[in-house]
Amino acid sequence: MSNISFDSIRVGDTLPPLTLPAVNRTTLALFAGASGDHNAIHIDTDYARRAGVPDVFAHGMLSMAWLGRLLTSWVDQRQLRGFGVRFVGITQLGHVVTCTGKVTEKFEAEGERRVRLEIQTVNQYGDARVLGDAVVAL
Q1: 55, 71, 75, 92: which is deepest, by most CB within 10 A?
Q2: Which InterPro entries does UniProt cross-reference here (predicted)?
């Protein structure tokens, strides 16, 4: 986490990217246990194939958690004022996910100086998997 001030931030500035190791079955099993999301589509290959997909794939909320890590690597979690995403693609086994963020607005609200961020995850092919935004008090 760095010491960032409202005055030093400019619209268009980017957060340091966060690149994760390739998604594997161990990651999915650990996330299922930690989150309590044991949906078989994420951990059971036979179930996934019966559902018409070639293999298990990552939980959407795992990608959101990685975006949360991106944000809290930039500022203290107590500075988060909003954080939302939409899932636009499936994160498959073997995908190397990179989380990025960009400042899109500076404003004041409720007596605080804040920035709005556009955030996303992409795989190693540059395909967006999760898109979202966040508001941070500076």
Answers
A1: 71
A2: HotDog_dom_sf, MaoC-like_dom
Describe the crossing of helices 25-35 and 60-74 by its angle, rounded to 10 degrees: 80
Residue 136, CA distances (Å) to 5, 19, 25, 71, 109 in order: 11, 21, 33, 9, 11
Paired strand residues for 105: 116
CB atoms within 10 A of CB 43: 18
Whole-number Cα distances in Å, 84 to 55, 115, 118, 130, 132: 27, 14, 10, 10, 5
